[in-house]
């Protein structure tokens, strides 16, 4: 399986320096740092740095080239981004399919993903240098994506394929797990209390308890939540007895 370190994002002929900074930011948020620039109109630029919003290190390491051939040197696979489905003898895939192919490539494969100019994209000659075209499915009536947005889509797909680590649970809160016996005790308490307050008719329970079981099984209760529910039920019982 390949790694993110072997993947370079190549921006060709970018006219607005802010887009370079925004692209660097999009890359860094997804763990990508290998940025190459081909004949940018204005670079370096204070605006690029400002739009990078903390991804200055990606900009500092960016390599500027005079030609696309130089930017692709050493790459065995080249994917060209294209908003228009052109009549070229090159396979067209969506970002997820492209990333799947990238992930299956040998470990040492160097890969380039090439993005064109903001207004005109990549020329046919530049697309000829690509082994695959990548098209982002979008609204047919308005399919124009900002350069940095396109970079973000590809960066996200790469991140989710190579390193889909997410924070599971609730940030900032310690959760103590409960077991099946705890849940059975809760269901028994519910049945007892709902019967006492007249909400559940034990002679005609229908599917109420079964539905409550499904509800709380989906909720994945923790110890604190379990105690809250028991407390509510006890309070209802006290109120009923007054």
UniProtKB/TrEMBL annotation:
Q: Which residues form the tRNA/rRNA methyltransferase SpoU type domain?
A: 7-156
Q: Which GO biological process annotations does it have? A: tRNA nucleoside ribose methylation
- What is any Pfam family matched here? SpoU_methylase
Tell me a GO cellular component: cytosol
Q: Per the database entry, which stretches of residues form a coiled coil?
A: none
The protein's UniProt keywords, in alphabetical order, are:
Methyltransferase, S-adenosyl-L-methionine, Transferase
Q: What residues form the membrane-spanning segments? A: none
Q: Name one GO molecular function term.
A: RNA methyltransferase activity
The UniProt family comment states: Belongs to the class IV-like SAM-binding methyltransferase superfamily. RNA methyltransferase TrmH family.
Q: What is the name listed in the Swiss-Prot or TrEMBL entry for this protein?
A: tRNA/rRNA methyltransferase SpoU type domain-containing protein
What is the species of this protein? marine sediment metagenome
